[in-house]
Amino acid sequence: MISMTVVTSINWRCQHTWHVASKNTTWCLLGCAIGDLGTIAFFQFTGIPWPTLVIMALAVINGLLTSIVLETVILSRQMTCKLAFKTAIGMSLISMISMEMAMNIVDVWLTGGAKLTWWVIPIMLFAGFVTPLPYNYWRLKALGKTCH
To answer: SS3 string of the chain?
Structure first.
C-alpha cells in the first residue's frame, strides 16, 4: 500500500518527468483512439442499430485491445514478441480505462453518444490525454514505472 506521504512528497514540477509521461500518454492515446474511434465510426457509417451503451462499451474494449497491439508492435523492435506482449499486457489498465472513459463520456455528453463529428474528435482526444496524464506522471515519479 502506498502511503499518502509518498503521494504528497512528489515533485510535481519536474519538466523531464512531465515530458516522459506526456510521450507515454500520447502513445497510449494513439492505440486507444484507433480502436475506440474506429468502432464508433463503423457503427455510425453502417447504421447498425445497436444501443449507444453497447457501442460505447465495445469501443472501450476495442480501444484497450488496439492499445495493447500497438504497444506490442512497438516493443517487439526492442525485445522478443512474447516479452513485448507480456510487457504490453502489464501496462497500466487504470491509465487506459480512464482514458477510454473520458473519451466516451465526452462523446456522449456532446453528441448523445456513438456519433463522431469533425468538432468532437479533438475534444475527445484532449480529454483522453489529460485524464490519465497526472496518474502517469505520479506512477513514473513515485514508482519508477511507465504506462508503456
So the answer is: CCCHHHHHCCCCCCHHHHHHHHHHHHHHHHHHHHHHHHHHHHHHHHCCCCCHHHHHHHHHHHHHHHHHHHHHHHHCCCCCHHHHHHHHHCCCHHHHHHHHHHHHHHHHHHHCCCCCCCCHHHHHHHHHHHCCHHHHHHHHHHHCCCCC
Q: How many CB atoms lie within 10 A of CB 143?
A: 11
The residue ranges of every structural domain in the chain are 23-141
pLDDT single digits (tens) 48-96: 999 999 999 999 999 999 999 998 998 899 999 999 888 888 778 888 9
Q: Measure the CA–CA gap between 53 and 43, rounded to whole angstroms.
A: 12
Predicted structure pTM score: 0.87
Report the alpha-carbon distance of residue 94 to residue 132 in Å, rounded. 8
Segment 12-42, tens digit of pLDDT: 999 999 999 999 899 899 999 999 999 999 9
